Amino acid sequence: MLSDSDKTLIRVGHSPDPDDAFMFYALAKETIETGDYLFTHELVDIETLNRRAFEAELELTALSLHAYAHLADKYAICACGASMGDQYGPMVVAREKVAIEDCKSYTIAVPGTLTTAYLALRMCLGVDFDHVVVPFDEILNVVEAGEYEGQAVQAGLIIHEGQLTYGSQNLELIVDLGQWWYEETELPLPLGCNGIRKDLGQPVMDEVTALLKQSIVHGLENRAPALDYALGYGRGLDRSMADEFVGMYVNDWTIDFGEKGREAVALLLRKGYEAGVIPELIEPEFIG
What pLDDT score does 74 carry? Predict the structure, then answer.
């Protein structure tokens, strides 16, 4: 057996939220054999990971599909590890119920301009709206307060567990972008993926992707301990809500994008390009 110093280091970046933690549970807690590979983990918000990926520092990293469109020269998409919103997804919320068209004149708190949530909202509104970038876990409080660092904010674009908890702060749902996308395309909204660095070479890319898939399947087959681990990143979610949230984003789509999921990714990238948000048309490359 190889010592750790002789193994190939795979630095992993993912978000500190329950679904990503659930997905990486088996690798983080070393409940599966990883052979010639040593995995280390960094938990960082998705927009930071998107930005860091331009330096190709991490061998395996969570990415927004929007960010991938700018990084296809450096990373390929693991066929496992998808976060798909199947008739649900990122949401726009506000203090008062208004039509989505009214938001065109709003300043909207967003979790980052490379997130797929931002891309989807740009396409939904059809305009380059005023926005302020806010850490994703502060957006609900910012909308409730109506300002961020002295700037008035009328609405927020929420991701992660905020999709389940916004009502507790008396906020109103304006649009669910996963539902909007489904009505436009009859496809799920591909939000996030795991990108694997292309300079690792095909054999390593294949083997690491296979280990990621094994970790996902292990979590799904050992749900209770995996959920216990994921609860550590739930930010106030009780066990039943954490289980619901994990089920939204770690499921059959996560084991493999499948034909429909791959179609959805290609369509998202094409529509983002046609909307002028993505600078060039990207054909997605999948590993596994």
Answer: 98
56 and 194 in a single domain? The answer is yes
Query: What pTM value is reported for the model?
Result: 0.94
The count of domains in the chain is: 2
Instruction: Encode the chain in three state secondary structure.
Output: CCCHHHCEEEEEEECCCHHHHHHHHHHHCCCCCCCCEEEEEEECCHHHHHHHHHHCCCCEEEEEHHHHCCCCCCEEEECCCCEEECCCCCEEEECCCCCHHHHHHCEEEECCCCCHHHHHHHHHHCCCCEEEECCHHHHHHHHHHCEECCEECCEEEECCCHHHHHHHHCCEEEEEHHHHHHHHHCCCEEEEEEEEEHHHCHHHHHHHHHHHHHHHHHHHHCHHHHHHHHHCCCCCCCHHHHHHHHHHHCCHHHHCCHHHHHHHHHHHHHHHHHCCCCCCCCCCCEEC
Whole-number average pLDDT of the chain: 95
Q: Which of 14, 66, 160, 218 is catalytic?
A: 160
Domain limits for position 95: 91-185
Do 126 and 172 lie in a common domain? yes
Catalytic residue list contains 70: no
